[in-house]
Amino acid sequence: MKISHLLLKISLMAMIAVSLVLSWLIWTNNARFQRNTTDVMTPKMQTETKNVEEVYLPTQIITSNANGEQYVVYNNKENLIDAMHKQISQWQLSDPHKMTINSKNYLTTVNQSSALSLVYPRNITYSIFAKTFKQKVAKADRQRLFNRIIIPTKHSSVAYFLDDQHKTGFSVKVKKENLAALRARLNDATMRLPVTEKLFNNQPQLYYTSAVQVTQYSYLVSKQNPTDFVTSLLSGSDPSALETKEQGHITTYNDGTYKSLQVDHQNATIEFEDYSSDVLAATPTAILNGGYKTLAKIGNAPGNMRYFDYEHKTRTVIYRSYVEGLPVFNQTDFGAVKVQLLSTGVKLNFSVYTLQVPLPADSTATPLPTTQTALDNLAAAGYDMHDISSFKLGYHWSVNSSSASVIDLTPTYYFKYNGKWQSYEQLLNTTPSTDEGSAS
């Protein structure tokens, strides 16, 4: 036993030493990082196209104890969302029924004690959920909308599917559940942030009730060569055979028929338009499925890509990168991927950058104030609270000052102000405006 313990200690010390040496080499070898990004970024580093069940998973887990105290939980050693997905996919859910809730008692249902909540950033349909969690769904129930699943964790044969936007919901019967397995996973969480749900401008919003400090990250990024997308999206066309137009930092490729691709070299984004066929996606389920199918055309969707937003009126679906359950902002002005299913065709916007390898951060994140304090500070700075429609804790994407190949992810609050997502720091450092913005 003594020899085994000694060998274990020696192995651990060796692993730590190797880790320290590699970290030192990464951050001191400037020549490696100062090379053009295309030198180290090859398509082989990207993951294969994701399954629809991965893209449309919940992004946040909230638990409540017997006293009603709520926490956002995360495990940096295990993906809890994936663990919940595997567990619930083995359950049997059936018989959806409309719940008798309204705007007055909605928060009571949301904030109930001894419960697990799986939260989506925006509404999805029960049909998409059923496909993701391997459940059967009747045709009449396919278009039911919700963004929150609540599962009582003590003893239950029911789960609740709630729609924050309309403050409605439906319940389903649950069989073959294993609540003990869920509780065991939740008990292993490495991060617990105290929260509560409150109404803000008549919409439920998540408030962090203590100072927030989450991990700051730096990532090596992968950059796809734009000409690869020219070939894949324009039906295998040779870029040299296409009609090409250069205007400033924009290059436009046209196949001479119904497809075009525009490369923005300055912002590292691509816009693809395909008007070769009409799009008949009219229901929310059809639009979300269409969004995924269009996303799959990129060929290499990153492993951290998640559904973020859906706008039925414009038939637009937004996907973002996620790190430790938090959305990444400022990668582009629209997210990571934006799909618009027009009646005449499809419009696809996406970034050529994806997060790849996490690196040691050169500094720790500054603690953020409570959500209420942040709102009070914005109000004191002159911002009208009625112009803020939503807010989230997320990561701010910025290029590392020492290397264009490295992205720094700094945790901060993001507020949707006049229709545009802006960081807490950005709002405090600018003059309040009443001009309408576009979603980003």
UniProtKB/TrEMBL annotation:
Start and end residues of each Regulatory protein YycH domain: 12-424
Transmembrane feature ranges: 7-27
Keyword terms of this UniProt record: Membrane, Transmembrane, Transmembrane helix
Protein name: Regulatory protein YycH domain-containing protein
